[in-house]
Structure formats: C-alpha cells, structure tokens
Design a protein that fits this description.
single chain, alpha/beta, eight-stranded mixed β-sheet, six-stranded mixed β-sheet, 14 helices, about 30% helix
C-alpha cells in the first residue's frame, strides 16, 4: 500500500486588506516533501501522525508539499495554483493508493472560491480509484466538491483546536480501513443555517461535543463532525453544517447529519451571547475580585485574518491610567526593528500599531523601555508549538507590551512568560485572540472577559457585509429552518 501525504492551508478573510502571497507561506512554513524530517509543529502535526501510522503498517509513504500561511485576505492566484500543482505532480508521479491532506477548508484565492474542493477534485480526476481523505479545521466552508470528490472528511471537534492529533488519527483509521476493503465510507451533510462562534471548553457546546462523540459508537457510524463555518469568508456556503461519515449507508449518514445538526440548532440562543464592548469590559475588569483578569481582544485576531496591530483596547487602558497590565501580541515589525536597534534597557519614543488601515485604529506614540529581546521563542497551541519569530517585551506607564514580527494570535501564556513577564503578578492580561486563547489562559485566569473590540473580525455576525452569502441565517433570522 502506498500513501501520499500533503498539506495546504490558510483561512481567508474576504474583508482583510492583506493579500496572502508567497511571502506569507514562506513565513508560515513551506516544505517540499520533507516536513516530517523537521520538528513537529501545529501546522505539520497531522503529517507526522500519518507517516508514523503508515510506517507501523509497513506501507510506503510519499511526502509531498506542506504549506501553511497565517490567515489574511485572498491568496494570490498564481501562488495557490503553484502550490496546488506541486501536490498534483507528486500524486501523478507516485500513483498512491491513498492520499491524506491536511487542509483548512476556508481557503479562497483569486479565481478560486473553493481551493480545497479544487485540489480534491483534481486529485480525484488524476487518481479515480484512490482513497482521498481530508482533515479540516471546523471553521471551513464545507463545499459540494469537497464532499463528493473525497472519500472521507474529518473536522477537528474542539474550539480551541487542541485535538488535531486525535482527529488526524481518526482520518487515518477511516481511510486505511477503506483502502484495505474493510469499509465503504459515504458522507452526508445538514445545513444548520447558523453563523456563530461556538467555543467548546465549557457550557452547551461542551455537552454537545461530548454527545456527538458518544454517537460515533453507534453501528455503522465512522465519524461525526460539525463545520462551524468561517464567518469572515464571503462564500455562498459560509455557515454551520453538520456532516457524517458512515459505512456504506447513505441514508444513515443523512439521518445522523440532520440529527446532530438539529441538536446544535436547538442551542443557537444559548450560544449567541452578548459580548462586552471596551468600556463595559474595562469596568468589569476593574471590579473583578479574582486576578489575573484575562481579556480577549476578539476582533484583532491574526488567526481570523486581522492585522493584529489594532490599538483600540490598549488606548483605552492607557487613557484610564490602568497599570499592572500585560498585553499582546502586537504585530509591528517596524516598531520591533527600532527596539532591536536600541537594545535591551533602552528608552525611546516609539510609534506602535495602527498601521494596516482603519480596522487597526490610530497609532500610539509612546515612550517605552525595552525590557527584553528574544529570537526563536514558541508558544503552545494544545501540545504543538507555534513560532513567535523575533519578539520584544516593552513597558510604558506600568503596561507591559509584547510585540513580534511573525503575525500570530496569542495562544498561550508562554507568549509572555518566554520573555520573562511574570503573568501571575499582573492584574490584567489582554490577548489578541477570539477564542483559542482559552486553552492556554483559562487554567491561569481568575476572571475571563471576551471583548467586542472594533476590528477586522467583528463578532456582530448579523452585520457582516456579505456579497455572496444569502442572508438566511441565524442570528439575522430568528428561525431560518422554520
């Protein structure tokens, strides 16, 4: 048996001003057939799992491209097509029995609204008899091409996505059994007509995910998933869809997809919670009894395509005169360069943030002291490391600020503690992330406060200015399935 493994992933924010080009993929990581010969990372974790599992079976493994870019605006057409064609060439040369793809599911390029569906469809045309499996981020646009041209799809179940290794194992098992003739996977979906953020660590989504996992033990069921959808991708299929993989039973797949989809739909009012604006959030932070208070700058999340240089929340903190605060990660290569030139211990005037456009706010002109400079630090997302590039700890008026030159959201306290910032001594910690921060920061937080800041990925889902997505979803409509 011969297995080809590959990865191509980014998440496209249709409203972001930043194009996703070759430099974005080079910064995120491009490997031409050798990703698993390098240390494991969040972006390559699935490929490492698949190689190890295949080798345990004595299979031949052919490794193709692995390329990942931090979410931004649409991918440049020739960049996407070049990366796609590398995988297609490797597949044509290898003629594998199985193909396993580590994807995102919400990648849009100039001229290609459905990059993952395009890649899978072209692989199917080249390899009509192969088993083709795709591992998806739940914030995907689950398209017809993806469903009909692949053998099986599996999405991460957790948000934050701390279950990548487990879901990679699930996909391998389903596709290996299919290749060995033990099963015949079929898939079906159910459109929930919802666009929401649905974190899974606690509350109704925790219970829902646990119920969904339990139902995977039912006869004939191979996998159950929910595509939450990526709200800031303007695509006809943006939104939440439940989907099921069963063993040769299309009717069962359709029934299971609808049942879990309607179960989730019934939770929509519980999941659609009001999020505090900046003044409300700062009032709550000042009144909180338990520290540290962890505040999430939700709308400036690099993981959703935002610049990560917005100044709205930090400006409000400084205007209130709050101290004993740590905040980050600010993506500002220019400010970082100035801090590196000045050196540790230097005090300088620095213009911070507000560089990428109106959604970033106005720059802040500050007098800062450079407390620490570092290179090569990482922060964990689940159990997998994410690079921080060059980074700095600067301080102004009792506020610690982390900035770097590799755009990424704030996943873990290591983004601060790696530079020496003692978070356990801080009253308030502000993180640029929508929800993934919860995996790392919930264990250390006394109080958690998501903040509906201005920015590129607003949580006001009914107000997103779609041009291509029909306006027939909750919360825009009260009961779109009626």
């Amino acid at each position: 048996m011969k297995l080809l493994i590959a990865g191509l992933a980014t998440e496209t924010n249709s409203f972001s001003p930043m194009p996703t080009g070759r430099l974005s993929f080079e910064e995120g990581g491009i490997f031409h057939g050798d990703a698993t010969r390098h240390p494991v990372s969040y972006q390559t974790g699935a490929l490492h799992r698949w190689r190890a599992a295949a080798q345990d079976k004595g299979w031949e493994v052919v490794e193709s491209l692995s390329a990942w870019a931090q979410p931004s605006g649409p991918t440049v057409r020739h960049v996407y097509e070049g990366l796609r064609d590398e995988i297609l060439r490797d597949a044509a040369a290898a003629r594998p029995d199985l193909v396993l793809l580590s994807l995102h599911g919400a990648m849009i390029a100039d001229g290609h609204d459905d990059c993952e569906g395009d890649l899978i469809a072209q692989l199917r045309e080249a390899l009509p008899d192969a088993v083709i499996g795709g591992l998806l981020d739940p914030h995907c646009h689950l398209t017809e091409a993806m469903l009909t041209k692949s053998t099986a799809l599996v999405a991460y179940k957790e948000y934050p996505h701390v279950d990548v290794p487990a879901r990679a194992d699930d996909l391998f098992a389903i596709c290996a059994d299919a290749a060995e003739g033990k099963t015949r996977p079929v898939m079906a979906e159910f459109d929930c007509r919802m666009i929401l953020a649905m974190p899974t660590p606690v509350g109704p989504m925790r219970d829902f995910v646990d119920r969904m996992i339990a139902r995977e033990a039912e006869p004939g069921v191979l996998s159950l998933s929910v595509a939450h959808g990526f709200p800031w991708g303007d695509h006809p299929r943006t939104g939440t869809r439940a989907f099921a993989v069963t063993d040769g039973d299309a009717a069962l797949a359709a029934r299971m997809a609808e049942e879990i989809g309607r179960d989730l739909y019934g939770l929509r009012h519980d999941l659609h919670t009001k999020i505090a604006d900046i003044p409300q959030a700062l009032d709550a932070a000042e009144a909180a009894d338990e520290a540290p208070v962890v505040m999430a700058d939700m709308s400036d999340n690099a993981g959703g395509g935002a610049p990560s240089d917005a100044t709205f929340l930090l400006r409000a903190i400084l205007e209130r005169g709050l101290t004993n605060v740590a905040t980050g990660i600010f993506w500002d290569p220019v400010a970082l360069r100035m801090c590196r030139e000045a050196g540790e211990g230097a005090t300088l005037r620095l213009r911070l943030g507000g560089k990428m456009g109106p959604m970033s706010g106005h720059p802040l002109d500050l007098t800062v002291t450079v407390r620490k400079l570092a290179s090569g630090l990482t922060q964990r997302f689940g159990d997998l490391p994410v690079s921080l590039g060059e980074s700095a700890w600067i301080e102004t008026e009792g506020v610690d600020i982390v900035l770097n030159d590799t755009r990424t959201q704030t996943f873990h306290p290591e983004a601060f503690t790696g530079l020496g910032i003692p978070l356990h001594e801080r009253r308030i910690v502000c993180v640029k992330s929508s929800n993934h921060w919860q995996a790392g920061f919930r264990p250390i937080a006394g109080t958690l406060i998501p903040v509906a800041t201005p920015g590129a990925i607003t949580p006001a889902f009914a107000d997103i200015p779609y041009a291509r997505r029909a306006r027939d979803y909750f919360p825009l409509l009260e009961d779109p399935l009626a």
